[in-house]
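Late entry, written up from scratch paper. The run itself happened at the end of the previous shift, but nothing got recorded in the book at the time, so transcribing now.
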Amino acid sequence: MSAPSISTLAELERKVVVGVGGLAVSNDQNTILTTYSLGSCLGVTIYDPVCHAGGLLHAMLPDSAVDPFKAAGRPAMFVDTGIAVLLRAIYALKASKHRLQICVAGGAHFLDNNGIFNIGWRNFAALARLLASEGLSIDAKDVGGLVSRTLNLQLRTGEVRLKSSGQSGETIVFRGYANIG
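Output as recorded:
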């Protein structure tokens, strides 16, 4: 009779990759939400440490008014409609507004050295306005610059990790607050 196999924590973890213009939410503590290639796009994580519900948005553009038809079909493509959908989804998982921990990465400055189209800055400004209008604030951010980023949210702990292009390893941007009430 052979010994039962023992799974390591890493084997139990499941990585959910959020593509450009996408979002995901979960309350499965074995899940890590990840998005890659955050250039001028914004990656936004939202996490509730009590119910371990979290979400990740990878938004490309600040304002859905440029293409309402596309926004109707792919709301996560835009900061304004993506944040609205993300908040509704996280609240549906029993997250509480006053416990939300929000982290942001991306918003890099690419392609436009004159700043005329600076989509990265416009994305971040739109996000800051939307969150303020909801009475929410950003707990940690790594925005701007000229680097592409990868963003990870671990739903067991609320830890947010970031890897920037040219960097050898990940950086912990936010450790999450312990179960706050």
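The chain is about 20% helix and 30% strand.
(Scratch paper discarded after transcription.)
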